[in-house]
Design goal:
This protein is α+β, with helices and mostly antiparallel strands. Helices cover 18% and strands 24% of the residues. The protein has one domain. The chain is globular.
Amino acid sequence: MALKTLRVGAAEIRLLTALTDGPWDRSTIENALVRQGWAAEAPDGRPAVEWGGGAAAPHFFGTDPPSAGIGPRLELGAAPGTDDGQGASFVQLPCALFWPAFGEEPPLPHGRTAQDDDLEDPETDYDEDEDGEEDGGTDLDEADDLDGEYGPAWHRAPDARRAHFHAEYARLSGLIRAELGAPLRSTSGEMDTHEETWERAGLSLTLHRGDDLNTYSHYDVITVRVGPTAAGDGSGGPDPLDRDGSAAMTAAG
């Protein structure tokens, strides 16, 4: 088992939450990405942002050369102004990757599941049989064979458990809560999926944990996504969500 994380801290979270400060139009968002150093200017002075590729054509940024492997990247949906109202326009940052994906891990002892893994529990050890295989799961000698595609920007924890992956989600959630208060809603699903969502003036910011479609489910992933809400037009306007989170806490319950 292994965990890869980008060094996403309060500064990076502030840059992402800042995308919800204004209207969701192409000029506003592209200029914000340039100011943040997440996009460059083309020779004609206009932002060079590659919209429309989604996960298939991420927008890379950072200082490492492409030869170093996959580094920080934004996954970009349809350009603002072309959204179909179903979440097609977005800016998304993958923050953490866990291997193997949920359902591929060996079982915990005593009938527990990977979702029961607890960093505070000293008895949380995966079962190993005498042949060197974890019972019912991955061979101990099996490697994360996509790891070599990722560059040095990713911090590697080769012995991490799923509990460490959950802890990284909680850390990122805490950083977002420090900016936006409590989430408007929190939902969980099958296969260890979980989402927390904040909304501001027709825009949403979602912290997602689940299956990584980019790697055909080789990893589970944590992402932060910003874009129009399903019902919103992204037009911006007065901020209904106070930075201290009071409005969000009221809406949540």
